[in-house]
Structures are given as C-alpha cells and as structure tokens.
C-alpha cells in the first residue's frame, strides 16, 4: 500500500463531519507534502523539535496540531504558529500557553487531554481536574486560549469492549462540558481504534501509521 492509497481509503471511510488529523511524526517532509497535495491540511506531531523543524519547510496553510506531551519550557518554540495543542494535561501548562499566546498576539486552540485509559502509562488530566480547568476558563481566566474540546487515548488492547467503555467516558464528559459552552472537537481514535471512536461520538481522529506506514521507533 502506498501513502496515496492509504489516505484515500481512510478518507472514504470517514463521515463528512469527522476531521482527520494526519499524524506525521517521524515521517519526512516529502511524505507530508504528498498527503498535503491530496488535500489534507491538518497534521499532528508529537515533538516540539520535530514540528519546529518541519513547519518552515511546508505550506503555510497547514494547521499543525501538537498531540504529544508538552513541557512548559518548550511552549515558547511553538506558540507563534501552532494551531491546536491537543495534549494539555496541567494547569501550569495552560497558564504557560496562555502567556505565550498573548506574547505572540494570538489565540491558541487547546484540547484538554483526559486520562481515560485504565493503563497507567497513559497521561492526561483526571476528570475532576478537567472540570476545574474548564470552570476557570469559563470564568474568563485564560484570555488567549480557546478550549475547543477534549482529547483522549484508550488503553492499547485487543479488548474492544474495554476501548469502547473508555471512549464513552470521554463522550459523557464532552456532553457535560458542551452544555456549559459549545465545543467543537472530541478527539479520540487512532489507526487501530478510530472506527470504535467514531461510533462512540468522536468527531476528530488522529491517524498516523494507517496513512504513512509503520514508524521507525529507533528515532
Ligand atoms: C502517534 C499518535 C497517534 C497516531 O498513532 P497511530 O497508531 O500511528 O495512528 C495518535 N495520537 C497520539 C497522541 C499519538 O502520539
């Protein structure tokens, strides 16, 4: 399978209201350009250094999403151009993003990453922490960020019921928040579990290997 076939196959499976974030981490600029040329505008990267290297080499109308854990001291490197930070997992990080966005005279979209996996290794806010941060946001504490939704990752398992159960926890929280303020994005689902995620209400999915092929983890 080549990239073009992979991309077209995935696109053809998606309902028109589901956003595809093409996760290009570890893949070269040439591969990203190839997918861009097929019409894709939204790309996800998980490392600050990698996205800051790729950004100047690619078309300026790409919307870059950061999807990996972000250290506070690195926010400044991406604040000038990042469209959305999907992996916001602490109050300290929100404050820093808000501050750096203000310095750059812009608003940065963020998703609150919520820990839904029972697996210990996955990061994210506890549900109660997400509620607290959302409340602060509704009270006007963060003027240069826009909380556009929630992001979550399910446990890495073959057990479809387990995955579904975890996704539905996030869908429920999304509905709760959505009552308080209209949210755009429920980001859940990756190459192996995006059909389940969509069935559970995801309207944005993050797909890497199913488009670009396997990653070389030695990098
Ligand atoms: C790498 C990554 C993805 C994409 O994973 P694939 O299995 O390659 O589709 C999605 N979300 C996050 C947070 C990732 O780090």
From TrEMBL:
A matching Pfam family? Ala_racemase_N
Tell me yes or no: is Cell inner membrane among this UniProt entry's keywords: no
Question: Which segments constitute the Alanine racemase N-terminal domain?
Answer: 2-214
Source organism's superkingdom? Bacteria
User: Required cofactors, per record?
Assistant: pyridoxal 5'-phosphate
Keywords, alphabetical: Pyridoxal phosphate
Keyword Cell inner membrane applies: no
Entry similarity comment: Belongs to the pyridoxal phosphate-binding protein YggS/PROSC family.
What does this chain do? Pyridoxal 5'-phosphate (PLP)-binding protein, which is involved in PLP homeostasis.
Record-given protein name:
Pyridoxal phosphate homeostasis protein
Organism, scientific name: Chryseobacterium endophyticum
What taxonomic classification does the UniProt entry list for its organism? Bacteria, Pseudomonadati, Bacteroidota, Flavobacteriia, Flavobacteriales
């Amino acid at each position: 399978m080549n990239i073009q076939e992979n991309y077209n196959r995935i696109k053809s499976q998606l309902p028109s209201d589901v956003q595809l974030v093409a996760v290009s981490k570890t893949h070269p600029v040439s591969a990203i350009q190839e997918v861009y040329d097929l019409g894709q505008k939204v790309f996800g990267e998980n490392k600050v250094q990698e996205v800051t290297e790729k950004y100047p080499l690619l078309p300026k109308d790409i919307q870059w999403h950061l999807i990996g854990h972000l250290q506070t001291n690195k926010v400044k490197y991406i604040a000038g151009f990042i469209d959305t930070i999907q992996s916001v997992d602490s109050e300290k990080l929100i404050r820093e993003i808000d501050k750096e966005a203000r310095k750059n005279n812009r608003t940065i979209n963020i998703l609150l990453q919520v820990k839904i996996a029972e697996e210990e290794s996955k990061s994210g806010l506890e549900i109660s922490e997400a509620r607290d941060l959302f409340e602060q946001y509704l009270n006007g504490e963060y003027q240069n960020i826009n909380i556009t939704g929630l992001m979550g990752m399910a446990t890495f398992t073959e057990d479809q019921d387990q995955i579904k159960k975890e996704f539905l926890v996030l869908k429920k929280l999304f509905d709760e928040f959505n009552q308080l303020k209209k949210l755009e994005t429920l980001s859940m689902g990756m190459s192996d579990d995006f059909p389940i995620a969509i069935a559970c209400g995801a309207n944005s999915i993050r797909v890497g290997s199913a488009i670009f092929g396997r990653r070389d983890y030695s990098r």
